[in-house]
Amino acid sequence: MNRRNIVLVGFMGTGKTTVGQLLSKQTGMPLVDMDSMIEERAGKAISKIFAEDGETHFRSLERAIVRDLSTRSGQIVSTGGGIVLDPDNIPDYEKGGLVVCLLASAETILERVRHDDTRPLLAGDKQEKILQILKTRRPLYEAIAHKIDTDGLNPEAIAAQIAALYETNLEIGT
Ligand code: S3P
Prior knowledge:
The protein is an alpha/beta fold. The protein has eight helices and five strands, in the order βαβαααβαβααβα.
C-alpha cells in the first residue's frame, strides 16, 4: 500500500528539518529536503542561486520540485519557507499527503536563525526582515488546514503531534 506523504511547511527557522528527521526515524519514511534538492539540481548553494539567477528563478526551481514530489508517496518532505507564495504548491501537496504548517512567533524565529547566514532573504537586519516577510506570509501559513504552534515545544513534542495527526487522517487530502 502506498503511504501518504507528510509535508512540513512553515517560515524559516520553524524546525521543519529537525522535526522531519525525527519523523523519518519514527516512521521509516525517507526525509526529502527541498532546499537540498534545489541545490543538487542547480549545482550551487541557494545563496548563489538568489545572487546569480534571482528569486524568480529560484521559485521556478522550487515549483518544479513540488510538481515532482507531490506525485510520489511514502516520504517526509521538508519544504522551503517560501512555497506558500505559489498558490498551486499547497493544493498539489495536499493531493497526496498530510500538509502540516509549523508556526512560531517572530521572537522564536529570530532566536533560531540568529547565527545563521545561509538564508539570503534574511541578510542584513534579521529582525526587520523576519517581521517584514512574516507580515505578507502569515495569512498564507494560517490558511493551511493543519497547523502547530511550536513556541515552547521541543522537536520531539512537535513530531509526536504530527505522528498522531497522521494516524487519524487516513484519507488523502485531509
Ligand atoms: C526561503 C526559505 C529557505 C530557502 C530559501 C527561501 C523562504 O528555506 O528555501 O532561502 O522564502 O522562506 P528554509 O525555510 O528551509 O529556511
